[in-house]
Structures are given as C-alpha cells and as structure tokens.
Amino acid sequence: MGAYMKKRRVVILGSTGSIGTSALKVARDIPERMEVAGLAAHSNIHKLAEQAREFGVKHVCIFNETKAAELEKMLPGVAVYTGLDGLCELARLEGADMVLVSIIGTAGLKPTLEAIDAGKDLALASKEILVMAGEVVMQRAAEKGISVLPVDSEHNAIFQCLQGNHGGAEAVNRLILTASGGPFRTWPADKLSEVTLEQALAHPTWKMGRKITIDCATLFNKGLEMIEARWLFNIPMERVDVIVHPQSIVHSLVEYRDGSILAQLSSSDMCFPIQYAVTWPDRIENSLPHLDLAALASLKFEAPRWNDFPALNLARQAGLTGGTMPAMFNAANEVAVQAFIDGRISFPGIWQTVEKALSNLSPRPYHGQLSIILEDDAAAREETLRILSAPVG
Length: 393
Description:
Shape: globular
Helix content: 40-55%
Structural class: alpha/beta
Number of helices: 16
Distance between the termini: 68 Å
Radius of gyration: 21 Å
Strand content: 5-15%
C-alpha cells in the first residue's frame, strides 16, 4: 500500500446525471477507496432515493424545493436539504473529504467555493465554474491548500500527462485538447444550416445530456474546455490548442518545450477520469475494459475546421480578453442553444447569435467579486434574448 492509500468520502452534486451515475459505478467498483457521503440532484427524486438507499447515504439535497416533502417520505431518517442553500450545506458536509461537482450551469459556482472554504478537495466536472470564475476558484483553492482534480476526460488526461513535470508552466509548450469533431465533422459548411435537433443530439462517441451534446456538435464544448484548461493548469490561453481525433481514444496531450508529446489513452468511459480523480495520486485495479492497441490498428488526427465551426475562435478570444468575457461567452451560448432546441434558430444560428451578443457587450475585470460575474452573466443572457426576439431584416 502506498503512502496515500486511503478511502475518500465523496459528496456528489449532480448524482442523477451522466457523470453522477458514472461516479456511483466507480464507487461500486472500488468500495475500499470511495465512500459516498452525500448526494444531490435537480429534481429526479425517485432516482435520488434509489441511490441514497443503495449507498446508505444519510445526507441528500433536492434542488427543486417542491419535491422535498415527497423525498422526505421516501427516505425516513435521511437529512433532506433543498435549493442552492442545500447544495452549499452538502458541499460543507462534515466528515466528507471531496466534493464532486457535476451540476450544469451557474448553480455549481457557490457550492464549489463553499467546498473550498470548508477544506474539501474538489473533483470538477462542471466546466462552467472555471470558465466563469477560474481565477477566483483556483486562487482560493491554492490559498486553502486543496486539490482541484479535473473530471472532464480531456482535462483529466492533461492532468495525468503533467504528473512528474518539474519545470512548471515554463516547461510546457502547448496543451492539446482532443475533440471528436462531433456528428458534423465531415459535413460541408453550406449544409450545416439543415442540421436538425435530432441529428445534433446524435453524438458519435459519448452519451450525455442535451445541452452538452449540442455543444459538442457546435464545438462550443471544446471552446469552454480551452478556457477551463487555461485556469486549471495556469497556461496562457494562446498555448491551449485543439486537435480533432474522431476515435476518442487519446483523451488529450501535452507538448513540452523539448518537442516531446505525452498522451493519455483509454477506452471511452467516464469512469476512468472519475476514478483517477478520486484515487489520485494512486492507480488501482478496477473492472474497466483495457485497450487493445492491435485491434485499434491506427489512430486518426486532423486539424479543426476553425472557420466552419467558429466557437473555437470565439472561445480563444473570450479567454484572451479575460475578465467577465468568458462568463458572457458561456451565458450567451446557453441561451442560444435553448433557442435552437426550441426551434427558433438554425444550427449555425447558435454561433452567429453568440458572436453578435459578445460584440455588443462590455466585459469587466471582476477582481474576485462573484457579484460582478453574475451581473455580467445576466447581462449576456438579456442581450442574447434581445437579439433572438429582434425582427429579422
């Protein structure tokens, strides 16, 4: 047994989503290393109750407060918290070592900071948190001496490739995030306006929620990941790059100053990065499938279509501008994606709307003040809605 071998007691915020259910698979697979201390969900009380019973969890939170009374009846003897205050209470849970945050959107920001202040290690799957407030989150984590462990497969891969790097950021030439390219990787640009919602939701590799699946199709997801990587690894935005890798076997790479490139490979299963976040710095045996390199035979890489999928350039510009611009980029995209889901705009209309909104907005430095981030997030949503409701022509 290594010096670090210990069981981590983990609170899972977003336990009924795809990341949360994968995290519980990991807990089943390695019970000697992972204990579930608390669970939170948005509104799926039946799945949450089932999870709490299976893992003997005594602390749960349901974000939708109207479901609380019903959940309490289903879980006698279990403490039931509600709303944003409930998420924060769970994030501070006494006896927990780590909080896994996989809540979509801005709701995860406050609980993340509460977890840091309570001295809990973080396993982050919600990229919006670092996109919106990367500077304050990473600074506060450093001050508290806690670990921020990425759960996104790409950032977890980079994290693994950086282990043993003693030269710091100066030794790194580029972080290279891999992208599957989405379902429209080979479509001609002039056909993208014909994309239907059903087609956009058919991701070639991963099974995820609607918002993130559409973000993968537009490459906005990769844009958000570029900004997230900048803060997680303290690497300037201009040194964060993207390569298209349709097989999703190489999860990301790090190019060092000497020209060496390190890559992390595994099967496409979110249990791999979740387990590494929970057991880090140890690697332990599990029941996950091992790669058969001979069966793979070859790995394919290609340059992104920067002009046909402008989300990557919009993200890079937002990251370089800094301040509240990344938060505005994220907010405008959320509104535009919803408009596409509702059938109000075309697929290219997502990035066209975001680009227009950002050109009309004025970002500000936020100096660690969350109120400024949230104000500018709201301003971006308002401006995007205004653009969407404006008469055409």
